[in-house]
């Protein structure tokens, strides 16, 4: 057995060391269970199990990266969203539980027994599109992203999960000219450039996070162009920052949307705004 970094010779010692690095206990357990390829419950029952030198070295490296603020999801290469295990890389935003609000709203608007056309703009890992595909097998879902690298992650997720989604490289509506949908959903970038919160998000793709000086550039574009891409009665649902609900409602109203409504995230903050085009 190779000698690994000191202080990591058993499961219990490794988890103690993680605490010393300031790494959250659950995160440390998740990382160690990935290194050892054992479920978390195994760790708890095997406190005194010895770690091979190689496992110690790999765990130490992951701990250091986590302590530097790298999202757990990138270190594990996986994140669960709406019950789906999704592969994630630093090419895509880590799917957030807040975005499940948008999925739930979309599911309310999509009948189970009717085939509707749905567009997901800026799909990233494919989280929204795939959650909708899983729960509405009849829906014809087109998911676009301007990043080819993101799209490769999304396509891989679709294949692994066996869910049929059309993946297109497109800067918002660019590649969708001439097409119409019953529903358009998007979790676009909505953070203002220079926002203090970006520091904590420095490992995630900037392109997926920021949109102009007020964070609304992407939403402005989507709101303005969505009516031409929607069937009469079709809806657009947008995720946004918790202080942007009124601004987004204003942009949708200006673009001619009616029945503008809003949904709150798990923290009770106004996180999604949507509207309907009338025929
Ligand atoms: N909700 C993310 C955050 O604030 C941002 C996601 C986005 O810009 N679409 O951490």
Portion in strands: 15-25%
Number of helices in the DSSP assignment? 10
* Total discrete domains: 2
**How do the SSEs run, as a string of H and E?**
HHHHHEEHEHEHEEHEHEE
The CATH topology annotation of the largest domain reads as Rossmann fold
pLDDT < 50 stretches: none
What number is the mean pLDDT? Answer: 95
- What is the SS-derived class? alpha/beta
Q: Which second-level CATH architecture of the largest domain applies?
A: 3-Layer(aba) Sandwich
Query: What is the top-level CATH class of the largest domain?
Result: Alpha Beta
Strand order of the largest sheet: 5-4-3-6-7-9-8
CATH homologous superfamily grouping of the largest domain: Vaccinia Virus protein VP39
Describe this structure in words.
This protein has two domains: 5-68, no CATH class; 78-276, Vaccinia Virus protein VP39 (Rossmann fold). Helices cover 37% and strands 19% of the residues. It has helices at residues 11-20, 25-36, 40-45, 53-67, 72-76, 100-109, 127-135, 148-161, 217-229, 245-254; strands at 78-81, 84-87, 117-121, 140-145, 166-169, 181-186, 230-239, 258-264, 270-276. The longest helix has 15 residues, at 53-67. It is elongated, with a radius of gyration of 21 Å. The model has no long low-confidence stretch (mean pLDDT 95). It binds glutamine.
Short description:
The chain has 279 residues and is α/β, with parallel strands linked by helices. The chain has helices spanning 11-20, 25-36, 40-45, 53-67, 72-76, 100-109, 127-135, 148-161, 217-229, 245-254; strands at residues 78-81, 84-87, 117-121, 140-145, 166-169, 181-186, 230-239, 258-264, 270-276.
